Each structure stands twice: as structure tokens, then as C-alpha cells.
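Section: protein folds

Sequence with per-residue C-alpha cells
===
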Amino acid sequence: MDGFRVGEDDFELDGRPVRLLSGALHYFRVHEAQWGHRLAMLRAMGLNCVETYVPWNLHEPRPGTYRDVEAVGRFLDAAHEAGLWAIVRPGPYICAEWENGGLPHWLTGAVGARARTRDEEYLGHVNRWFHRLLPQVVARQESRGGPVIMVQVENEYGSYGSDQVYLRHLADLLRAEGVTVPLFTSDGPEDHMLTGGSIPGVLATANFGSGARGAFEKLREHRPGGPLMCMEFWCGWFDHWGAEHVVRDADDAAAALREILECGASVNLYMAHGGTNFAGWAGANRGGGPLHDGELQPDVTSYDYDAPVDESGRATPKFWAFRKVLAEYASTPPPQPPPPLPSLAEPASAALPTWSSLDAVLDVLGTPESEHPVPPTFEDLDVDRGLVRYAVTVPGPREPYPLTVRGLRDRAVAYVDGDRAGVLTEDTPTLPAPVAGHARVELWVESLGRVNYGPRTGEPKGITGGILHERQYLHGVRARALRLDAFDVLSAVRELPATGAGNGRPGLYRGVIEIGTPGDAFLDLPGWTRGFAWLNGFNLGRYWSAGPQTSLYVPGPVLRAGANEVWVLELEEGGERVGLV
């Protein structure tokens, strides 16, 4: 049979064996104007294919409300133009160190632990989403002259569940919606993962960072025939706020890549180019294992991943080491890398003199205040990314008692009668000083990213257990939400009233930074603590002095010659200036 297919031992194209040399590049982590450059870098590394996930929550922010699903098709067209095949991993769950593993907050808030199962309510939403998404993929299959050669069924499902009825439903759904190219699953090379995550008649692949021979031996125990492929070769890793920056030696990674190829296998580099978690879409992990409520480990804004093509699109030593290995297995010599995209010619800095208090921002951009018997979660208030201000008045008269927030996710800046009273977390849920009767308590709570992997995926955000004064619950809690996408309405932000000098207080700081020739840059925020930054209305993502990330990547197309608007939403303690370097 002509076209791309899964053969008895190899992938085949028009009856001839082919080896897939693929690299992960997520269209949603790269500014669209830079897709072509990044895809050309993959070609220059010696790859013949690109792989991408599709994050459901990015494209369906509310049930039945869709946002630029066509971006998937535009990216696949760009891959085709670059001379690359494409592997699509549509989910519905993607992990990817992405907010909630790609599942919409409104979905997991409604179905809870029934997500990623045969549950009818969950599958009803999946069916509707795939019906909207898959035409972008189906029209671009290899059999129709496009680049798409394979589509994944779910994602690493064996690391989560064992519902074979669910997996079969997804495979049948993909076929019913017109996917004719080969389907596949990908899981860790362990018995329980491969048995939980693979289904008969669908190619099984393995994910790992080293030890290819042992991994493929385990895969062969479950699948004696068919092509071997490492669908995620973890050539780097991601970073968490407050932890050390993770790197992997280029020679070590190249040796592991060579071992995969020496096994006769195909490979997908994860990541070939990581990109950036713009607009607060970074996810989080939970330490401690499945039986423990481990510490939340939020992911940083950069998704550089120590990949061979770095966050700003430059070739690293790992790029050249991989290019040398891949050249031995490619059918044609790789082309030369494209010229680097322009960088900012001269550094620039500016003060941000216009300040609006958080209350003023909430008055204009937030939702109306509502009162609840117990604190509502972010899901209850329809907040995917952003803040919620909880307010409660302590009954009185009564003597001062400890005030504790149960089930806090993730971080709260607390005020008592207008004075800052401390920062609370899951591990430190009690205010340092006791609170007396009649006090007004405000808790500004921020989600640091929903868990994207493991049994805690989909857990709610905000205050999930209640507010305690001594051992007594406080009821009649008022809540008001500030979604990050409220800042997408540029006119509303520009019309915010200034409320005096910021002097480092929490709030929205605004100013203008003048540059000459635009180009790729990084935004430095010396002296700032934690929040979000925008340039010309483009949300660069979260910054946090906890590190290890110390500046935010600015794609060149975001900037313009002359005046550039800068907004900084500071949640704890602000600085005086920002800089572009």
C-alpha cells in the first residue's frame, strides 16, 4: 500500500523503510512569526519530522467557546513548507509541563477524578472538542498531500490509569473523525505503564532519557513486532521555581541518542526546541509520590529544557553534537542553519511611574464580588490563570486567635484591616500573629500552575478547605476574581486610573521603554518579587525572584522601534525599573 504505514519491522513510505528523526516543537510556546525559523533549525539539525502537542485548555477557555483552533493547521502548514513530516499528539491530556496537563479547568472542576476515564460526561466534552479540532489535522494528513504521518492516542496513559475502554473509545473516535494515518501510544518502558497505556492494534512506543537497549527490550516483551521508536527522548529537563537550573551534558545526551539509533529505532527529541510558557500557562508537579501530599513544584516560565535549540532559537553545543550523530542516519546531508534572528541592538531601561493598586485593578478588570458560605475554588469562580481576593470579617467581640487557611493552593498574601500580615502557603497556612474579633481579613490567592502529571492532576485551586479562626470555620466569605486574560483587553488596561506612587507596593505598574531597532531580548526585573509582565500587551509570563529564572524572553516581533508599553503586575514587593537586554 502506498503512503506512510507501520510495517512489520519498520515504518514504510510507499513500501520503502524509513526512519523517523523527529523533534518536539510546540507551536503554542513559540511566537507564530518565529515558527519558520525554529522549524528550519530542526531541519538543520538533521531531523525529518516535527512533533507537537495540542493544549485543549488554550483553545477552549469555556465550554463551546473556541480560540484560534486554526493555529494548529497553520503550524502544520509551516512544517510542510519547511520540508518536515509531522506527528500530532492531540490529547485530550498532554502533560507537557503545561497548566492542568492541557485539560480545561472547567472540565476537571466538573468531573474531578472521572477525567481520563470512560465517564460519559467527560467523554461528551472530549467528543465535542475532537470534532472541532481534528479537521485541522485530517485535512493535512500525508495521504492528502500534507505532512501528518502519525497521531497519538491520549498521552502516557499508563502513568495514570488503566481504563482500556477509554483508550479504545479515543482510538475509535480518531478514526471516526477521519484520521487514517497510523495511531500510536507512548509510555514509560515499564510493565504497568505499557499494559495500562497501550491497546491492541495500535503501535506502542516508549519514552525515556537513557538506556535504550533495556527500554526497547521491555517494549519487545509487550510488542514482539513493529517499528521501535522512542517517542520522547528526554535530552534535557525542565526547571521549577526555587530549585536549581537543570542541565544535561551534550556529549552524554549525544551518546544516548546514538544508542537509540544503533538499535535501529526511530526517535523524537523531547525537546528539540522548548520555547516559553507565555501568559502563565506553565504547569506544576507534586513531589512525594502517589501516597503523599508532596510539595507543589511550579514550573518556571522558560521552557528552554536545555534543548539543542535554546529558548531564543540559537544553536547550542548539544545542537552540533546531535547534528553529527543524526547525519550518520539521515538519508541526505542536513542543510546549514538559518541565520539567527535579530537581537535587540542596544540595551534599554525605564522606570514605571504609573501605578494602580490591586484594588483599583480589580475594580476595573475583575469579576463582581460574590458571597459564599465557604470559600469558592478557582474552578467555582471560572478562573484558569490569575488571582482571587477572598475577604471575611471575623465575628466579635472575641480575643485574638490563630487564623489558618486549610487546603490553600497555592500562595496567599494576607492583609488584616488593610495591613499586610504575611504570606501563606500550603506548608505555612497560619498567620504569624493572632487575629481579633471584628477584623477584616483579605487573602489575595494566586495559582502557581495546576498539576500536569500524576494522580493530583486536575486538583482545584484557591482555598479548598476553609478559613479557620482557632478551630471555628469562618463563613460568609466574599470573593472576587482577576483572570489573567482580562489584561487582553488593552483599552481597559490603558484606562485604569492611577492611584498615586507605587513605592514598591503591590499593584500594576505601567511605563514606556524606548528602543531603536527591535529584536529578540530579555526583560530584566531587578528588585521585583513576583508577578506577571507584559510588553505591548503581550503577556511574557510569570517572573519570581525565587529563581532560577532571572529574566523573561521577549520575542523580537513583540517589540517595535520607539515607544513600547510595559506593564508589571507585582503581587508582593515591586522594584523601580525594568530593562531590556
Observations:
- The first helix runs from residue 35 to 45.
